[in-house]
Each structure stands twice: as structure tokens, then as C-alpha cells.
Amino acid sequence: MVQINSTIGGEISQTLVTAELIFSEPCTLPESQIEKLWQIFSQIGEHWKDVYNESKNLKSAWLEMIKAKTSQQPSYSAEYINAVLVIEELTQLYGEQQAYKTLFFSYKIPQSQAENNTEKTQPILTTLLAHAKYYVIDEFIRMQVLSGGFKHFGGQSNASGEVIKVKGVNYKGFVKGSRYRNENLARTFEGKT
Amino acid sequence: MEEHDYIIVGSGAAATVLAKRILEKNPLTKLLMLEAGDLIPAKERRQWWNYTTCAGGPLPYQYTYDKKSDNQSTIGKDGQPTWTTSGGRVKAFGGSTMHWGGWALRFKPEDFQLFTNTGQGADWPIDYHELEPYYAQAEQYMSVCGDETENWQPRSTPYSVPPFQWTAADGEMIKAFHALDIQPGKMPVARYRKCMTTGTCKYCPYGARFSAQYVLQDLLENPDFINFNVLTQSVVTKIIAASKTKISGVDYINNQTNQAFSVTAKKIILCAGAYEIPKLLMASTSKNWPRGIGNDHDLVGRYIVTHSMLEVTGKAKSNPHGLWQEYDFPTLMSRTYDSPEQQKNGKLFLFKDRSRPKIDIAQLMIDGMSKIEINKKIRGACEFKLQAFMEEVGQYESRLSIGEGKDRFGLPLTKITYQKTEEDDKRADTHLALMKKIIEEMGLEVIKTFKQTPRGDHTTGTCRMSATAETGVTDANLKVHNVDNLYICSNGVFSSNSAVNPTLTLTALAHRLAEHLNQQDEVTHA
Ligand SMILES: Cc1cc2nc3c(=O)[nH]c(=O)nc-3n(C[C@H](O)[C@H](O)[C@H](O)COP(=O)(O)OP(=O)(O)OC[C@H]3O[C@@H](n4cnc5c(N)ncnc54)[C@H](O)[C@@H]3O)c2cc1C
Ligand code: SF4
Question: Residue with the nearest Cα to atom 4 of ligand 2?
Fold first, then answer.
């Protein structure tokens, strides 16, 4: 059961900010920052066990996304620097394993109350921690899943819920395609037509 | 002032076919295209990453949509507008194919004879067989993939690309179709270049889903077409009639500089879509045309109609094979109820919702679920949805007119007087009952039935094509009745609506008009 927790972290994590993307000019992040961000990304595969051969196969696609999001306005550079600082603080407070576990599985961005049933709740992005989760972790997760992480889900499972036959073949955002028309590009219906 | 051979208003799917065909025939044609919107980058990686990874999947052209607050449609009993204008079109270089789904279906022969067959609506002044060769050209042009063995209508050529196979997630619905004697079909889609089945077709990263923008870009980059020019952010405000039968040109405003211009041409073609063309005709009043050009019989803007979208959602107790619709575009459809027998009761085009079972793995991870929990959820209860377009008949009282005020492009706002008829409501209920039967045949519990408020995506009828000036706005060659040099190429000219999406038919009409104009020009030059 997921514990709802919106008050983790220390001074950095709980610093108050406005909801919009933290402003920064487009720039190239230093190699060391990119490496730290890559460590954050790789932890997704570590914790959900949804990549083969670590995350390395996804690195060039991931780097392309980072470049696209930092080299143009609105630039994510400040958000990326912030996420590294937040995770460093969480690591200092809880240790690396627990920091990621808390961030991935128990931290929840607080949500605004919907005024009536037709309105959607909105995330309240008033802390640096909420920014790191919303603009960085969540977007990394989407990127990781559509780039191949999805293949570890779906299909049949054994009694304890473990996948025994990996069946996901295609997913929104995954570049499947083929030069060969007879290759199945998705799980297809083989029944009577 | 330099006179152009052609002025084309708008730069969408229709405009682009015409420009391409006219320029290919005579590369030196002086052709000016005026487009109200701006260039929105296509195949742009940052935009694609935003769409696929940011919350809410923002799309770069959404800012061009009609604002909800601009809607001046009739208010229904529920206090809501009876017609939804927002989200129905893109105002940009290349027009609305920037956001279309690419479903590319031919009409059927009976669609061209609605009045003869049913006593309702109107007949087209052309028939299916006359349009058939142009359907073939349109399919080739947009690389439509499909399965010709399904035999939904007579065809002279096979599809240029084979269809996408049904997905495993289509399986249970296909079985239900068979059990109820409904023929399943594969959705024909326009796949211009090599499709990588990414499923993000609202913003294709490879330019595979056809968009007029790519064709337009190629035309502009062709060094042979030295007299072809596209002016963006240029809003045409009036068509200038030199006499009762001749148009001399148009007035437009450049939105960047706020300057007004007049340009002249031998022929003018209006490709500004089914909302803007009637408004432009109505705004173009003069002594000769007191009610606006082509509007002596007060028919411009009348008969506005679109498809009613119907939906039935069913819940399955479990999803034992952990399936989802892996393409995020539909692969299963049926035209069994899009038939001559069904015509008098409103035809129905059935298709499986493009995204169900909807499994958003990333969102479940974001919500903090573990891998085991997610897999359990995927194999737990899930939803399937059957959707359909229902044909409706355009009514004389249903009308589009010029609203009060302007939008941010400087285009007059759109007022739509529309009320669904009781007959349409009854038909929708009958169709929903059939759709429920299919969902129940799949062994699912029906959890929702839904009739969508008419949305402008497939608006037709506002400048009907007709045999006489007393019954419509253009003739069979898409020339405005009794005017020598003004043409309309738009879904607005459709005399009736059918049950399927309009753009392949529009593209076929554009090919036919281009051929007609090229023949005329040949005679003139000879
Ligand atoms: C979400 C969605 C999905 C769709 N999917 C499908 C589908 O799968 N299959 C299908 O067949 N159809 C589909 N359609 C419909 C399809 O988009 C249209 O039929 C088609 O794009 C119409 O092309 P057009 O050239 O007539 O107009 P448009 O492409 O809308 O072009 C008209 C252009 O004219 C410009 N303009 C307007 N007024 C003026 C003026 N006064 N001066 C200068 N320029 C002006 C506009 O800015 C616009 O760029 C879909 C529509 C929507 C909304
Ligand atoms: S499936 Fe992918 S490649 Fe194919 S048209 Fe859609 S977005 Fe483009």
C-alpha cells in the first residue's frame, strides 16, 4: 500500500517556489550534471526492474531529450540542477536506496481539492521537491516507459503476479516500425476473419 | 498591380492539392496562397518530447484552436452550446491535417444520392463513379493503407500500402462482430512516409501521418515554381466582385504589420474550411451582391451538419493476457451499418476506440505502484469502448453565420444556430442499443453510453454543391453559381455528409477541380 507523504526532505526540498518551470536561459549542462541526472534516470530501471542490460541502451535517446529540453526556451536547465540538489539532500538524509524508494513509491505531490466532481485536481508545485518530482522524475519515467520499459508489463502472469511471458510489443511513443511488412508490429489478433 | 493567375485562400489539405496539381501542370503559374495562421514546426523533437513526456501531453498547435469563450452557438436545454467549435480545426500553414487522425475512407455510392434514396437531404450533382478515379488519386497522394478485399465499395485500384493488422486487443470485439453478422474491417489510414507505429499521430515525429504542411514545404522548395508564394499571417477579409459575374481579387490584412492589401487574380479558390468560407462570402457584400457573394438565395451557411459521435463503454472483469491497444490509433472498424439499407435511418460507421484498454504504465509508476502491483492492475478490470459516427441530415434551419467580434487571428467569430432534431435523437438511441448489444456480446458490462455534442471536426454543408443556384452555392465543378471565376474547395461543398470522415473525399474533389482548372487553362492558352 502506498503511503501518502508530501513532507519528506530537508531545507532544500521544502524551499518554497512558484509552480511554473524555474526560469533559466537555454544552455548546455556540464558533463558532471548530466552524469548525475543519468544516475537518477537509471534508478528508475533499478527500482522497477523494467530494463534489460541496465538502462544503457536508452542513453542516446535520453541524452537527445535532455538536449532538446535544455537548448531551447522554455529551458529545463534550472529544473535539472534543482533535481540533482534535491536528490543529494534526500540521499544525505535517508541514504541512497531509501531516498529513491521514498521518492518513487511513497512521496506524493499534494493535490488541490477539486471544487466539484467535474474538475480535475491539480498538483500543487510549491516546493523544490514537488518540482523535482513533477518536472524531472515523472518525465523521466514517461520517457523510460515509452522507450522500452513497457515491454516488462502486460502478458500473462503466475499466481504471485510475476510476469512469466513478456507480451507488450508496442506502446504509445515507442518507435517500433519495420521495413518488413510481415513482421508483427503489435500483438495481433490471429483468430478467424 | 500585378495580376496573379490564382489566389488560393487557406493552405490546408484542399489548397495544397490544388497548388501542387496546378504548378505541376504549369510551373510558371503565378499562384498566391494566403493563410491566416503562422508556421507551426512539424517533426520538431522538443515538441515531440513535450507531447510524450510532459503532463497533459501539450501539442504545439493547440493555441490556434477556437476558444471556448468564443463559441456563439445556440444554447441547449442543458445550458451548454449545442455545437462545439473548440478543437475542430488548426489555423496554420498546412491547416488542420496538422492534427487529424489520418483515417481515410471513401464515401459509398449511395451517399451521393441521399435525397433520391430517402427523400431527405440532398443529392450530389456528381456520383460515386465520377469521383472514383479521383479517390484513387487521393489515396495514392496520401499513401493510404487499407484492405481492398473488404469490398466496401467498387474500386478501380488496390490501396497503395497494405493495412495495419488488427491488434490482439481488437480480438474480442471482432468475435462479437462475427456473432452478430457484422463484417469487421481494417481502418484505412493515410501514411505518407514510413510509419514507425509510434502511435503519437497527433504530432508525428517522422512525418509519416500525412500532413498538407509537408507537401506545401516541398512545393515552396521546388526551384521550378518561381511564381508560387505563400503568405502566412495574412487574413483575407473580403472578396472583391468587379461585377455580378466576375471577381477581381481579395483584400487581406497582414497580422504582423497590421497593413491592409488588395490583390487581384484571374481565378480565386476558397480553401479556408467550412466555417470561414461562408463567413467570407457573407462578408463580401456589394451593390451586386447585397447578401454576400453567392448568397442571393440565402443558402450560404445553411445546412451545417457534422457527425454525431456515439460511444458505449464496457467493463471487463479481467484482462488475463494483459492487453492494451498498442498502436494508439484504431485498427478495427466496420461499415456494415454504413449501407444503402441503413441510409434512411442514419448510417453508422463503427470503430473501436483507439486507446482502449487504456494502460498508462508510466502514470501508475508515477503514482508510486510497484511492478507487481502494476501488472496485477493491467490484468485486472479494464474498459473497452465502441465508438461510431452517425450520419445526420443537414437542415435548412441549421445555419452558420457571422458572430459578434473577432478572434485573435482577426477572423470574425462563428455563430451556429443548431438544434438536434427529435428524429436524430431517436436514431441515436436505436444505434446505441445496437452498440450495447455488441459490447454485451463481448461479455462485458455496459458502464456508459454517450452521445457527444456535435463537434466541428467534420463540418460539412455550409456551401452546398448543387445542380441549380436555387438549391445550393456551387455547381458540380465547385464554381460558385453564376460567378465565372470563383471556386470553393472545402468540406462545406458536400451536399450530404455520409457516416465517415470527410478528408479523402475532399482530397478527391480537389484533384478533380485541379484537373478541371488545368483543362480550362489549356484551352485558354491554346
Ligand atoms: C481532431 C480532429 C481529427 C480529425 N481526423 C480526421 C481523420 O482522421 N480523417 C478525416 O478524414 N478527417 C479528419 N478530420 C477533419 C480534417 O482535419 C479536415 O477535414 C481537413 O483538414 C479540412 O481541410 P481544409 O483544407 O478544408 O481546411 P483546413 O485544413 O482547416 O485549412 C483551412 C485553412 O484556411 C485558413 N483560413 C481560414 N480563413 C482564412 C482567411 N479568411 N484568410 C486566410 N486564411 C484563412 C485557416 O487558418 C486554415 O489553415 C479531423 C479533424 C479534427 C478536428
Ligand atoms: S504511428 Fe508514429 S510514425 Fe506512424 S504516423 Fe503515427 S506518429 Fe507517425
Answer: B195
